[in-house]
Amino acid sequence: QVPLVESGGGSVQAGGSLRLSCPVSTFSVSCLGWFRQAPGKEREGVAAIARDGTTTYAAAVQGRFTISKGSARNTVSLLMSSLEAEDSAVYYCAAGRELLASPGGECGALDAWGQGSLVTVGS
Which residues, other chains included, contact 63 with Cβ-Cβ below 8 Å and sequence gap of 6+? Predict the structure, then answer.
């Protein structure tokens, strides 16, 4: 099992930016991604990146969020810009076996995920 621990959450005003990071013990996984869950809502995929660097995004965050992999400590990051109140949620890093073509922003067949990092966007 791939251990995942998120960091970088917090509170920000609408229009602001936050970066989430998630060190991964190995990049041998096929897909790394972020999903979120707000109170009373279902879990939804946000962004995902395949081993070859291919990325997909949920329509709600397209153009505002950027997922990337860094060489430092094998980290996958999520840069969230132009944040909106609707982005408030607990964000989870996840590792899976495939990058789904649809819906955007999701890895399939998840093998591991983290404890979550709270993001609160004030309006």
Answer: none
Determine the Cα angle at 32 with ends 5 and 35, to 5°. Answer: 70
88 contacts 80 by C-beta, under 8 angstroms? no
Rounded distance between C-alpha atoms, residue 17 and residue 26, angstroms: 28
Q: Who contacts 119 (Cβ-Cβ below 8 Å, separation ≥6)?
A: 9, 10, 12, 18, 20, 36, 80, 83, 87, 88, 89, 90, 91
pLDDT in tens, 35-86: 999 999 999 999 999 989 999 999 999 999 999 987 655 789 999 999 999 9
Per DSSP, 58 falls in state -
